[in-house]
Recover the amino acids of this structure.
């Protein structure tokens, strides 16, 4: 039996009777950009994250860029982030006019390591401010990433940020409706960014993103930036962008906000099932740390034989992914920063050994059994 990596159709079929009239409504009202559907979604999503403001945007990349841009740091600031993330995290830093400063991940959660962040910062002092020894950028921020659906350790990162006077950002593109220590993802740090790319836990039917924050100032600035720096039509306070969300996406996401918690419960149950089915295999299974709602955007395991294993699964039409196969510090696009292979051993191991299994809320036990028995066969033969 073939098992797809992702099945977007299964979810659409559940909610299509609600989706179609909402889309029809957008067509009838001709309010295609921002407008009441997007506003309704923003209110619901802010409530879901437990924050005052959600500002809906055109993509998750716009959201990472926007959240950093909206905090108005001096040009050329250094922002600490892990290199084992999707390129948009570091891209957002660069698009906002700053410098990514990479620090290694934690070997259990694969999220930015607070210990290594602290250690790195302690070695960065020259003139009273932390300065990145590689690029000379004054470090003014930390961008955590909730990789695979598990919030980074923001409690510790916040203490470090406060100690060094840094802004704290959360890239929550993979962790809608997650939590840690009772606090929702999207509410850590000064501001957070989300992606609603179709394959995300909460996916639009096209591109979409948002920032969430308790800060009136950051939210107001983001609303202006997303619309060309304008608060009044044809009058511009500063240079902005066109990062407005489509009303069609607002309509879809407004409905999905109701279901995301239950869908994530299904993902969590599926992850627990994988954990028990695969417990005896020689692979590192994902770890959920205490007091955390890891929402399993991706079920990532690690094994040194992952390329062969992935080929074996592909031959049986079982979809397995790589998230991600190459860390950012060794990518050509970031070579100007001067990093080398070997600089971040945990992120490099993550890149070399990760493999992600089929994971979506509608995944059946039968499909999971199929994945597990193919993996057991592989390790018997291997
Ligand atoms: C961690 C992370 N940040 C940012 C993004 C960018 O989101 P988008 O694809 O919506 O631009 C993604 C999406 O893949 C992501 O996984």
């Amino acid at each position: 039996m073939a098992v797809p990596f992702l099945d977007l159709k299964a979810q659409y079929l559940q909610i299509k009777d609600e989706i179609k009239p909402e889309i029809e409504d957008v067509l009838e009202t001709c309010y295609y950009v921002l407008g009441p559907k997007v506003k309704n979604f923003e209110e619901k999503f802010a409530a879901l994250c437990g924050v005052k403001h959600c500002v809906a945007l055109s993509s998750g990349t716009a959201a990472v860029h926007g959240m950093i841009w909206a905090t108005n740091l001096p040009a050329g600031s250094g922002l600490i982030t892990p290199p084992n993330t999707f390129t948009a995290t570091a891209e957002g830093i660069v698009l906002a006019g700053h410098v990514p400063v990479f620090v290694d991940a934690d070997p259990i959660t694969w999220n930015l390591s607070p210990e290594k962040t602290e250690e790195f910062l302690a070695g960065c002092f020259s003139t009273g401010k932390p300065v990145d020894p590689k690029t000379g950028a004054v470090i003014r921020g930390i961008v955590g990433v909730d990789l695979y659906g598990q919030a980074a350790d923001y409690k510790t990162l916040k203490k470090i940020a406060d100690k060094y006077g840094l802004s704290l950002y959360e890239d929550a593109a993979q962790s809608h409706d997650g939590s840690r220590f009772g606090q929702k993802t999207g509410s850590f740090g000064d501001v957070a960014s989300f992606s609603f790319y179709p394959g995300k836990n909460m996916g639009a039917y096209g591109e979409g993103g948002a920032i969430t924050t308790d800060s009136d100032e950051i939210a107001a600035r983001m609303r202006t930036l997303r619309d060309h720096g304008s608060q009044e039509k044809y009058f511009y306070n500063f240079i902005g962008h066109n990062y407005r969300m489509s009303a069609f996406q607002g309509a879809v996401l407004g409905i999905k906000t109701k279901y995301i918690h239950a869908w994530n419960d299904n993902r969590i149950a599926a992850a627990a099932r994988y954990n028990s089915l695969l417990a005896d295999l020689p692979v590192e299974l994902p770890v959920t740390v205490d007091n955390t709602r890891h929402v399993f955007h991706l079920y990532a395991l690690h094994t040194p034989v992952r390329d062969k294993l992935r080929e074996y699964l592909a031959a049986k039409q079982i979809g397995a992914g790589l998230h991600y196969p190459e860390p950012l510090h060794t990518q050509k696009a970031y070579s100007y920063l001067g990093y080398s292979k070997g600089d971040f051993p945990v992120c490099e191991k993550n890149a070399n050994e990760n493999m992600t299994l089929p994971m979506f809320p509608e995944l059946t036990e039968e499909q999971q059994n199929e994945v597990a028995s193919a993996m057991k066969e592989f390790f018997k033969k291997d």
